[in-house]
Amino acid sequence: MSKSIQTPAAHRRLLNAMLSEVVLQFCTTQAAQGKPEADNELLTLLAMAKLFDVTGAAVYEEKFNLSPSVYDYCPKIQQPTFDEIALRMDALQRHLENLGTSEAFFTRPWLGGLLRLSANLVGAIDWLAGESEPVEIGTALATAMENATADFSHRLSPIGDTDNTLAMVDSVNMMGSKAEAVLTMLGNTFAEDGGTARPSDDAVFYALRSVGDEIADIKATVSAFHRQAKI
User: Superkingdom of the source (predicted)?
Assistant: First the structure.
């Protein structure tokens, strides 16, 4: 990454130009379907999307001197399609269009969102190219408890696991209460007088992210209970 690229406007021009190349290659790839060059065009599209993803990560590291988070692609579809890729590209383009030229708009949450959308685009193309398959739908708590070495049981009710109704209801109530508490504190902060210091963009982003994680945990817990009930 060139050290001369330092302003949000320059970063935006670079990322917009690269994404435009990805879009053009996507059109070329679609037009090549059924032709001998179809596979090569698809692999070229995948390589260009990965280059955009790597460049976005480099911009993040340059601005914040931090390595960005790694995001998974978890589609709610059963088969890879060009329509799925088009949806991911549109989402990425809209996100770039929301970036202003001011430094105030070029935040960690915005760049984190860019990298998450970029990972989704790469994942969709990668899946269609047959390089790898996305992880199974149903993320967060249930997947982690089944496959990871970490113990996530502390996020469940102390009266039991997901194998009985009382424990499941208590877990959901506990998760909902935690999410509600974060939103209440966040809302109270913005309801105070203007002289009171407001939380930073990062603090607001991660507060809302924690609420989203609790909601994902609720869904995963209910799904786990449903699977247990079917056994």
Answer: Bacteria
Based on its alpha-carbon atoms, the radius of gyration of the chain, rounded to whole angstroms, reads 21
Among all chains, which residue has been given the structure tokens 């090549």?
Answer: 32
DSSP string, 217-231: HHHHHHHHHHHHHH-
CA-closest candidate to residue 168, choices 211, 231, 226: 226
Q: Does one domain contain both 108 and 170?
A: no
Summarised one tens digit per residue, pLDDT across range 138-178 is: 444 444 444 444 556 667 777 666 567 777 788 888 888 88
Residue 33 has pLDDT above 80, yes or no: yes
Where are the strands (E) in 121-216, listed by range?
Answer: none
Domain end position, chosen among 96, 129, 162: 129
User: How do the residues of the chain divide into helix, strand and coil, expressed in percent and rounded to 5?
Assistant: 70, 0, 30
How many Å apart are CA 150 and CA 29, to the nearest integer? 42
How many Å from the N-terminal Cα to the C-terminal Cα in the chain? 53
CA distance 215 to 209: 10
- Farthest CA pair distance, the chain: 66
Instruction: Name the pTM for this structure.
Output: 0.57
What 3-state class would DSSP assign to 188?
helix
Cβ-contact 118, 54 below 8 angstroms: no
